[in-house]
Specification:
Radius of gyration: 19 Å
Order of helices and strands: EEHHHHHHEHEEEHEHEHE
Largest sheet: 7 strands, mixed
Strand content: 15-25%
Structural class: alpha/beta
Distance between the termini: 41 Å
CATH class of the largest domain: Alpha Beta
Shape: globular
Strand order of the largest sheet: 1-4-3-2-7-8-9
Number of helices: 10
CATH architecture of the largest domain: 3-Layer(aba) Sandwich
Length: 283
């Protein structure tokens, strides 16, 4: 990718530095109306029904040593209440605590199992209308970007399947091809997502005022506040209340497409310039 991002946010441009991962995928031809627009999607709880704990449980169950695998699986199960509490208090704190569990994992093993993780765990748990939402937005010429607190290698198969243009995700630190249990900076979580989106917009000539953001979590309020078209998907209680206060669209991506009367993002026009009806809202 051309151009490096500001030094305060190293690593978004992987051709320059290593940090939060931004993987470049083929860009689709954009319509004139939305050529400077982007749609930014949180992943866990927004596009898929599961989260990073499920991914770790998958890896723990497939560790090379059966005895170690059992220990890791039990440890993960016992840790879930701690992870849940940390997630509710601070997504950044949650990430720092959670990813320590990967310490000592082989980089090759993690990457090799990523496709199996996608097929067995992630793909069956993609919300029924998630791909449709992205497809409609892409056909209108909007740049599609995943912004996830999950690990980059776990998200790449999903990004390819959904046909998005870019992936921004967390990266584990490896020393001699083994995970240290630490994340490379910047962490992709909470307020940092908004900073990353601003830097991304500056690098790619994206107008955030004419862009969309989608998330399920109140902790992602900053990424909603930075765009002109904030939209909440399958929201938690606090985010649903906030959406009502600001009159933001509330989407249910768990609904089967054939049951939906309207399928397009609110305010998104067809490439021929005709406005579409809004995706089904729940107030």
């Amino acid at each position: 990718m051309a151009g490096a991002l500001p030094q305060a946010l190293p690593g978004i441009d992987t051709s320059q530095q290593r940090g939060a991962e931004c993987s470049r995928l083929p860009m689709h031809q954009a319509s004139a109306k939305y050529k400077n627009s982007a749609a930014f999607y949180d992943v866990d709880g927004t596009l898929i029904k599961i989260n990073i704990v499920h991914a770790f449980a998958f890896y723990a169950a497939r560790h090379a040593s059966i005895g170690e695998s059992t220990r890791r699986t039990i440890q993960t199960a016992l840790s879930i209440p701690v992870f849940w509490a940390a997630d509710k208090l601070s997504r950044k704190w949650f990430n720092e605590i959670f990813y320590r569990s990967y310490e000592g994992a082989s980089e090759d093993r993690l990457v090799v199992l990523a496709d199996e993780l996608f097929e067995d765990v992630i793909k069956p748990n993609i919300y029924p209308r998630a791909k449709e939402l992205i497809d409609e937005s892409r056909r209108a010429g909007v740049r599609q970007v995943l912004v996830s607190g999950a690990l980059d290698f776990t998200m790449k198969p999903l990004a390819k399947y959904l046909g998005v243009d870019d992936l921004i995700a967390n990266q584990l630190e490896f020393v001699d091809h083994y995970a240290t249990g630490k994340l490379k900076k910047p962490f992709v979580a909470g307020a940092t997502k908004a900073d990353i989106m601003r830097a991304y917009a500056k690098q790619h000539g994206v107008d955030l005022a004419e862009s969309w953001a989608y998330t399920d979590s109140f902790s992602d309020y900053p990424m909603l506040a930075v765009v002109g078209h904030p939209t909440v998907c399958n929201p938690d209680f606090r985010l649903r209340s906030l959406a009502r206060s600001y009159d933001w669209p509330v989407l249910d991506l768990d609904e089967e497409p054939r049951r939906a009367a309207d399928r397009r993002p609110q305010g998104l026009a067809r490439p021929n310039g005709k406005a579409t009806r809004s995706i089904r809202r729940h107030n």
